[in-house]
Design goal:
mainly alpha
Amino acid sequence: MAPASAQAPALRSTAPDRLEKALGLLALVMLGFIVAALIKGLHDWPAIPAVIWLHLATIMTALALTPVLLWRPRGTPGHRQLGYVWSAAMLLTAIDSLFVTTSNPGHFSPIHALSFLTIVLVPLLVISARRHNIARHRRTVRGMIIGALLIAGFFTFPFDRLLGHWLLS
């Protein structure tokens, strides 16, 4: 009889590590800042274009699902279903952001590079999950959360952009 280690490959833990716990928490903090900004900007809502409302709705969906997906059991049917919703929200956010040019009318800003990257990465994320390439899937998720959610999200607050104007004025 072969040793147990030769019978089955070692399973990598899918439990959240410290980075994933922190990323989930930061996603909730970002979501909280957006909600606070929206509440403070209530009087301006009628003047906001539909493309920005779509952008906010999709990004808030992704931010709300991030800790759920990172902190709860993975590989379950629920994780897969919510993962598809998160992926769709991220893809729609990236595509929609290409039409949000209010701070530089008619032109892309440097932050739009993250949108193009997200449009490429979302299908790769889904493919890696479907192929059970957990390491690649996990790296891609982490990178997208850090870059497309948190860094891009941070840049919605300074420089007198809409959410920053609402939150900080």
